[in-house]
Amino acid sequence: MKLYHEPFYRFAFSEQRKIEKIHLPEAKPLCNIVICKKPILSELETDIIEQGKTDSEGWVKFSKPLIVMPGDVFYAFLKDPI
User: Fold this and answer.
1) Is residue 72 part of a domain?
2) Does any domain span residue 13?
3) Are 27 and 78 in contact (CB under 8 A)?
4) Is 59 in a helix, a strand, or coil?
5) What pLDDT, on a 0 to 100 scale, did the predictor assign at position 2?
6) What is the DSSP letter of 39?
7) Cα angle vertex 43, ends 57, 73, to 5°?
8) What domain range includes position 29?
9) Number of domains composing the chain
10) d(CA 39, CA 47)
11) Listing from the earlier edge strand, what are the strands of the sheet with 48-53?
12) Under a CB-based contact definition with an 8 Å cutoff, are residues 42 and 77 in contact?
């Protein structure tokens, strides 16, 4: 049992990459996901990078590839499943 659990998944990058999807291993299929620039779930359009649902294996595909640079960080929040 985990003693502490963040309310988000954190993705940090040390090199430039093109990200087309992310894997959320603990997420159930068809969970609503919000990807934000900050570690606080925000409704501001400027903070939201992507919204989507997990597939049967816990992957979330982006509607368009995301280019990340060294030092970039983003956060994935699970919302209520449908």
Assistant:
1) yes
2) yes
3) yes
4) strand
5) 54
6) S
7) 60
8) 9-81
9) 1
10) 10
11) 9-12, 73-81, 31-36, 48-53
12) no
For tokens 């699970």, the residue is 78
Whether 3 is covered by a domain: the verdict is no
Map 19-36 to HEC letters. Answer: EEEEECCCCCCCEEEEEE
pLDDT tens, position by position, 35-65: 999 998 877 778 899 999 999 999 999 999 9
User: Could you give the 3-state DSSP secondary structure of residue 82?
Assistant: coil
Q: How far apart are CA 8 and CA 76, in angstroms?
A: 5
Q: Which of 76, 41, 43 is nearest to 59 (CA)?
A: 76
Separation CA 75–CA 67 (nearest Å): 15
Instruction: With beta carbons less than 8 A apart as the criterion, state whether 29 and 75 touch.
Output: no
The answer to whether 33 touches 24, Cβ cutoff 8 Å, is yes
Q: What is the pLDDT of residue 82?
A: 44
The one-letter amino acid at 43: E
Q: Tokens 């659990």 — which residue?
A: 5
**57: phi > 0 → left, psi -120 to 50 → alpha, else beta; which?**
alpha
In-domain check, residue 2: no
